[in-house]
Amino acid sequence: MFKFLKKKELELLSPITGKMVEITEVPDPVFAEKMIGDGVAIEPTDGMVLAPCQGKVVQVFPTNHAVGIEIERGIDLLIHVGIDTVEMQGDGFERLIQEGERVSIGTPLLKVDIDKINSYGKHTITPVIITTMDKIQKLDIATGNVRAGKDVVMKVKIK
Fold first, then answer.
1. What are the structural domains, with CATH classification, of the chain?
2. What is the pTM of this model?
3. 123 counts as catalytic
């Protein structure tokens, strides 16, 4: 009845400071071929990961390399720090939130040791993926350098 009151567009801020990279350039086919969803990737220059939006933390991987956030209206977001970083078994990753916790824009989620990821020979590129693309009409993706909690990386138009 009051559908007109529902917000039809979301802005997602960068969860990490760095340089934007096309999702298709991520050196992992699961992300590059958009098998689990669409979004952006950021080559980080800093290891602090912040909430890019309001929502509820629905998953923190046991190795602390990835966080799932339920945004609103059933839209889910995955922040995955690095490629094959699960193999590090949590070394270099510090969890700052718990599953079930509500977060606001800029809430610290993870602290990551970028040098440690590099020392393992892993890519630091960080995909930020909407995994519920069936609820999305359109994504507008930013380019260039972004600052965590400050710059918009995606404008999401909801169906």
1. 8-158 (2.70.70.10)
2. 0.94
3. no
